[in-house]
Write a structure and sequence with these properties.
The protein is α/β, with parallel strands linked by helices. 49% of the residues lie in helices and 20% in strands. The chain contains five helices and five strands; from the N terminus they run βαβαβαβαβα. The protein has a five-stranded parallel sheet, sandwiched between helices. The longest helix has 17 residues. The radius of gyration is 13 Å and the shape is globular. The relative contact order is 0.17. The C terminus is likely disordered.
Length: 125
């Protein structure tokens, strides 16, 4: 089963995304900030880091950069409601997918599905 680490500081959004991804068949671990995600990345393996960009303590871009050092094969998808931040994310972590808020849950699940269809075709998981 594909494992997703979700870092989202907005509680309602975090619960909403968590439920939708689990219903789509993914195993999801959710945290409310980047600093809470780091220990999980150090001690466990995830296939995808799905992170909001704008969060207190540590933003999603810094989290993704630190995650890349801990788990270089893990994929990254950013979610954000700020257009200017999208450009910054694309420059900082060019291999990451960026999904701008608002988005429909169907679009999120489709993007995650696409990421792993490519991976399974190339032998990655």
């Amino acid at each position: 089963m594909i494992r997703i680490l979700l870092a989202e500081d907005d509680e309602a959004m975090r619960q909403y995304l968590h439920r939708a991804l689990e219903r789509a068949g993914y195993a999801v671990t959710a945290v409310d900030r980047g600093t809470a995600a780091l220990p999980l990345l150090e001690n466990d393996r995830f296939d995808l880091l799905l992170t909001d960009i704008v969060m207190p303590e540590m933003d999603g871009i810094e989290l993704a950069q630190r995650a890349a050092a801990l788990a270089p094969d893990m994929r990254v998808m950013f979610i954000t409601g700020f257009a200017a931040v999208t450009l910054k994310a694309g420059k900082a972590v060019p291999q990451a997918k960026v999904l701008s808020k608002p988005f429909h849950l169907r679009d999120l699940v489709l993007e995650v599905d696409r990421m792993f269809e490519i991976g399974s075709a190339s032998g990655l998981s």
